[in-house]
Amino acid sequence: MDQMPKCPKCNGEYVYHDSVNFVCPDCSYEWSGEDAAEEEETKVWKDSNGNVLQDGDDVILVKDLKVKGSSIVLKKGTKAKNIRLVDGDHDVDCKIDGQPFSLKSEFLKKA
């Protein structure tokens, strides 16, 4: 792990590793490193309305988006089919009119 997890009990950020357990000095809560790894794997992607997104869903843009480094504007209401969820700042990969795009889930709604 390159970054220490936050305390699951008090959400404290000053956590340290004590041999096999993580320890929060603020609330004295201890938990195993395996629990922290399981929490990181269960990432959930949500659209602008709070609906859970999954690989293969169809989505619709909720606002006009300018494509960086191009004169293309993706219009509100444009549908993207068969999305793929990825980790990162732009968490949805899709194709619109045959061109690949990486979009943020906050600008999409589930179709």
Automatic annotation (TrEMBL):
UniProt KW Hydrolase keyword: yes
Limits of the Protein YjdM N-terminal domain: 3-32
Gene3D superfamilies xref list: 2.20.25.10, SH3 Domains
Gene Ontology MF term list: hydrolase activity
Sorted UniProt keywords: Hydrolase
SUPFAM superfamilies hit by this protein: Prokaryotic SH3-related domain, Zinc beta-ribbon
A Pfam family the protein falls into: YjdM
Annotated family: Belongs to the YjdM family.
Protein name per Swiss-Prot or TrEMBL: Phosphonoacetate hydrolase
